[in-house]
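Sharing a chain and its predicted structure for anyone who wants a worked example. Both blocks are below, sequence first, tokens second.
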Amino acid sequence: MSELTSESNHPDWWVSFLKGGIAILPLSIAVLPWGILAGSMAIETGLTPAQGLGMSGIIFAGATQLAVMGMIKAGASLVSILISAFFIASQHLLYGLTLRERIAPLPLGWRLILGFLLTDELFALIGKHSAAEFSRWYALGIGLFFYIFWILSTLAGILAATQIEDLGSYGLDFSIAATFIVIVVPMIKSIPTMVCVLTALVLSVVLGYYHVPSSLIISGVSAMVAGLLTSLIIGEKE
């Protein structure tokens, strides 16, 4: 029996679980301002504290959540919100395909739980593991600890928004960029990846400066196309 199928009976499963919780701690601390911002934005958007906390609990996708609340505040239509949310969160499809070899052999319950907990941070920590190295309990520790931390930081933002006016003006949104820099930079190990990252960086700044609608979606799609074309060109030369 393989390690994947026998792991749940291993007496040291809790060690792997706690290691996952410890591994995600630095990223959890880094995302604290992000969660506070999400909570405060929920109140500014007009949601009740329960609705704001529920949004964090159900969606569990920070970038998508902040974008959706911004669009709600701007009065965007439901169709526009759904389309934008789909494209912003579309990278999770690629994450799932990348992890398929490791996740597919697990029981349905495990697949559903890890699928829900799959974030950029979780993928960054387990995406480099091979199928033989993969531990479901380690992944669960990462995802669950991060989920709890996200809920608590959102709650802190909701409580702070009731005491501090215009909490978003304190520069908390910089934590979004800082968190993704920490995640993305270690993954730049090839020319196509470098091209993809630089394309996304330049386009997001330029389009954002000129207030181009759907600038994040355009930047993301363009970056993926640029990375793919670079990979094909390099492959043909080799």
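Comments welcome. Residues 1-6 have pLDDT under 50 and may be disordered.
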